[in-house]
Fold this protein.
Amino acid sequence: MKVLLLGARGQLGSAISRIAPTAWGLTAADRTVADLASPGQVADLIVRTRPAVVINAAAWTNVDGAESSEALATRINGEAVAEAAQACGRVGGRLVQLSTDYVFDGSGDRPWTEESEPAPLNAYGRSKVVGERACLTTGHAMIVRTSWLHGGSGRHFVRSILGAAAEHDTLRVVSDQIGAPTEARWLAATIVDLADRLARGGVVPSIVHAVPSGHASWHEVACHALRTASALGARLRCTADAITPVPSADYPLKAMRPMNSRLDGRRLDALVASARPSWTVGVDATVRALVRGGA
Ligand SMILES: NC(=O)c1ccc[n+]([C@@H]2O[C@H](COP(=O)([O-])OP(=O)(O)OC[C@H]3O[C@@H](n4cnc5c(N)ncnc54)[C@H](OP(=O)(O)O)[C@@H]3O)[C@@H](O)[C@H]2O)c1
């Protein structure tokens, strides 16, 4: 079975590349061979390589930057996704499209289900909704929504907080945004499983939320990460007790973020055999890799 991975050098893409089954005959494409900003380029690659499954882990992910570059973000996260989904249809392939908690407006305190209506607060979220709608229209795609990715070699919250704690005696971290930090390695394994089902012609839903169990604020995630790092012997100037919880209003950014980013993962529970791990398991793994210099 042929699988084409787009965004192979990103946080999630590189995690998928590392664990892709050899039977997949994976083509791992990065921006140099599949530039989503360039109309037609990704569709041409799909038609040329005729994969059974395309996994699109490529995206414009600069949330604040999207506020001033919405057209380009929409080109990459929306129009290119539509072209990829249509091209998959032409070659009898299926598309696994990554999406985000940022498609929701963050109201209320209940987890968003796959049926919840998107109502993004920012340009990045709007651009991802354009991609989602294109996938739903073509019917050849499965949308996998996730949240708060961490792990691997790129920039992510757990790395940033450990770095900041090594340099400062005190920190201030937002405590009114609630979600589930998702380890890239776990998400990659989940996507491999889902992509296999798709390729085998299994019945899969058009949208699945892939997040670990439980939820926390950024402040709680930061405290947990520092406690784990300290227990592993990391030299930190700031301990968990010295992190002050602050409201989002004290930390203004260009793009508004949803307060309630909780994604309901029960549909995934019904699909896969293994239980979803707690978010703490993934954060512990990422902290371990960072403290031991493995990431
Ligand atoms: N990060 C999160 O917290 C988070 C949360 C929810 C959902 N998601 C979604 O999960 C998916 C993976 O995110 P991630 O964190 O792995 O992102 P990432 O680390 O920023 O990786 C994105 C990849 O997309 C590539 N890319 C950007 N513009 C491109 C273009 N014009 N053509 C081709 N490739 C392009 C980047 O290439 P370069 O390396 O060349 O820049 C990068 O390799 C995305 O769909 C994202 O929206 C992420």
